[in-house]
Structure formats: C-alpha cells, structure tokens
Design goal:
Length: 316
C-alpha cells in the first residue's frame, strides 16, 4: 500500500502491517499522538525495500508489527543517522533476535501477558505523550481487545468478546475502521460494543461460521517434512479458521491456510514451534501462529498448470 501523505513537510513515517487490526490500530494511536505523519501499510516481505526507499526522506520512522531482515538490521545499526531515526515495535517470537539492536523493541510476552504490535507501540506512545485521548479507558480497551484477538490470549469468558473486533474490521475495512475508532475514542469514555456494532457482528459471525464449515469440508490431510498437516485454501477468516481446525483435529501437528493471492498461514496447538519451522519457507511468527510468503510466480504457474498451452506475457 502506497504512502498516505497528509502534508509535504511530514517528518514522521509510520510503517505498519497491512493485514489486520494489530497493524491498523497503531495508525489510530498515532493520530492522537502526532500532529501529522505519513503512513505506509505493508506485508513483511516488503519492509526492507520500502524502508530503504524512504529512510532518507524522514527524520523519524516507526515500524510496528513488522520485522526488518537481519541484513537490514545490521545496515541500520552500522549507520548512526539511520539508527537514530528508526524505531521498531514488534511482538513476534521469531523476531526476538532484533532486540540485539538498539532501535528495536520486540516483546512476545511480559509478566504472563502476551503482547501485540499495537500494545507494544501503545506503551511506547504513553511514555512520550500525555494526550488525553491516548490515556482514555476507551483507548486502553481497544488496545486490549486487539491484543487479545491477535495473540489468542483468552483467559476469561469476557476475553472472548475480542473476536468482535476482528468481525468489525472485516466489515469496515482499513480506512473505515480507522475513522470509526478514531471518532469512537473521542466520543466514548469506556470501551464497549455499541448496539449497532453487535448487529453487524452477528451478521459477520454467521457468515464466518458458514465459511469455516465449507473450508473444513475441503481440508486435505497429508504429510509434510515428517509432520501430519491439514491444508486448506482460504482467503478470509484465516486466524479463526486455523485455530478452529487445529483444536478440532488433534491428530494433526499443524494446519496450513493458503491464500493464493497473499501468503500462507500456519496454526497449531503446541506440537510444533511454527516460529522455527516456517523459517524454512522464509517466514516466522509465534510458536502456534506463524506465516510465510508465497513462492514467486505462483499465480502464473497455477494458470499454466490448468491451461497447458497458455502463453503469459512476462512482467516488465
């Protein structure tokens, strides 16, 4: 996603994850903290390239819920000007090695609580700003809902309500989600799901349940690298689908959810450290939830497999 620019003289660039509430909510938090900034929403494999393109254009760059490669981290660390302007906030277990670099803060779990990109970034922002909206209970509630659903840190029945934030995000889309909760925090003192929210959430959950049921029927069971694996092709609700299947089929070591347009998600139940396993496929993440990019030219290769005689123009 290209840079969203507010003013030409912006000095701060916020780079965050494009995929879910944990990547998008930091934009809302930044809107309460900084007068103006630019936003760049990316997938993990895009970060190094886009950072290099923009690093000399800004005085400060915040990277949230995303890693840089070790090669990029070393390059930043070797250049004093870059090291002083880049701040990275993440929570993925597979990226803990970045804590070896002074510009990065990666917290997977702290004091028995799993952290998310949003919560790590929020804690930082509260140390540099006393903005009244940033400190409201409605803001803290939103941050915690995002943290719970992103890490599946469900400890109480009340925590299960965090599924609702995913449902609303799916309905609203990125920009409407930002606008909705930016105004919500201004209007509400405490976090709660409004009556109209609950109506939309019910519709979305019914759609999700039907979708998961159909994808479950299509799941392939196979062996990969010595593990028993369930494979599903799906474009929506990948976290809920993956966790549902991993819990329902204890005979599987883990589940792979393949979205042929974007990436591959992995979900498990403490049998395999997926943050380690997915490194084989240039991925990473957490022990029970990880991901990796698709192979290059996958869509072209699939098309050629279906249509043997097709001729596809090479990209310029």
């Amino acid at each position: 996603m290209e840079v969203q620019t507010n003013k030409e003289e912006n000095k701060l660039l916020l780079i965050s994850h494009v995929a879910d509430p944990d990547g998008i909510t930091p934009v809302i938090l930044a809107k309460f903290t900084f007068d103006t900034f630019d936003t760049l929403l990316l997938n993990p494999k895009e970060v190094d390239e886009k950072l290099k393109e923009n690093i000399d254009k800004y005085e400060e760059i915040h990277i949230v819920d995303l890693p840089v490669s070790e090669e990029m981290a070393k390059e930043i660390d070797e250049k004093e000007e870059w090291k002083n302007k880049v701040k990275l906030f993440d929570h993925h277990h597979g990226n803990l090695y970045l804590n070896n670099y002074s510009f990065a803060k990666v917290i997977d779990e702290e004091n028995g609580r799993k952290e998310s990109g949003t919560s790590v970034y929020y804690n930082y922002l509260t140390t540099i700003s006393d903005n009244e909206f940033l400190c409201k209970n409605s803001t803290k509630g939103l941050v915690n809902q995002v943290r719970i659903i992103d890490t599946y840190d469900f400890k109480t029945e009340e925590d299960q309500k965090a599924h609702n934030i995913d449902a609303l995000f799916s309905i609203l889309g990125r920009q409407n989600y930002i606008d909705y909760y930016y105004n919500y925090i201004k209007e509400e003192d405490e976090f709660k799901y409004r009556k109209q929210d609950l109506f939309l959430i019910k519709l979305e959950q019914d759609k999700m349940n039907n979708y998961i049921e159909k994808r479950e029927e299509e799941m392939l069971k196979t062996e990969l690298d010595g593990y028993k694996v369930g494979i599903v092709y799906a474009e929506r609700y990948r976290s809920d689908l993956g966790h549902h299947l991993a819990q329902k089929y204890p005979d599987l070591d883990f589940v792979m959810i393949i979205n042929i347009s974007t990436s591959i998600s992995f979900r498990g139940e403490n049998k395999v450290d997926l943050s380690v396993y997915t490194k084989k496929y240039n991925g990473g993440g957490h022990k029970n939830a990880a991901g990796c990019p698709l192979p290059p030219n996958l869509l072209q290769n699939i098309t050629k497999l279906i249509f043997k005689d097709i001729k596809i123009e090479e990209e310029k």
